[in-house]
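Worked example 3. Consider a protein that binds iron/sulfur cluster.
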Amino acid sequence: MPKIPFPKRKVPRRVAVEQFAILERTYPHAETALTYENAFQLLIAVILSAQCTDARVNATTPALFARYPTPERLAGAKAADVEKIIRSCGFFRAKTRNIIACARDIVERFHAKVPRKREELESLAGVGRKTASVVLAVAFHEAALAVDTHVFRVAHRLGLTTGKTPLDVERDLTAILPREKWRLATHWLILHGRAICKAPRPLCDRCPVADLCPTGAVILRKKKAGAAFLRLHRPD
Ligand code: SF4
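Given these inputs, the predicted complex is written out as structure tokens:
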């Protein structure tokens, strides 16, 4: 399927607000699909989830946390042992280096506690803005909106942003929503991206936001035109 171009202009603010209201009603129990018991486990799970499904991470972390339940234990781990456990998550050598270094940072610089400030989180090995946002939003219930590949794609298709970078997208989305909705909006967009607004083939005819979506309007129009063409040229 050819790549679906993003709209070149943003939708008006009132449309954006209505789109979010529909997503909120559609995904009332929005929460992370990663399983975790504390901020440390969530942080490690989010690092492992790069280029990997949450289901795969959830299948891996029980063994990892059984052996290394605390930052201190993971900080002292041998890379080869960790690699064996997280191998199926992809990029396992780099991820092993990152999670061990991250655990060491937490132990040496933050008294073995995951820090709660964005700058401190982003100073940990392997932690960028998106990972820090997930930990702030999910573990600490802070106002933060994480832009992953689903959020980036769905926000563009809906015309909520024309931003070139994840930070541009984050700025556009947080300008539309009140602070208390930021953390939930991440989940609405991720869930919608996984279930309906899929990367190669969005299911626009099943989408609750289709009437307000500039991309959906184009896709559905093309689909209708294609169906009419086939009807006209059907052999009798
Ligand atoms: S209408 Fe289509 S492109 Fe727009 S949000 Fe829904 S699934 Fe995505």
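Take a moment to read the result before moving on. The chain has two domains: 13-28+147-200, 39-139. The chain has a mean pLDDT of 95.
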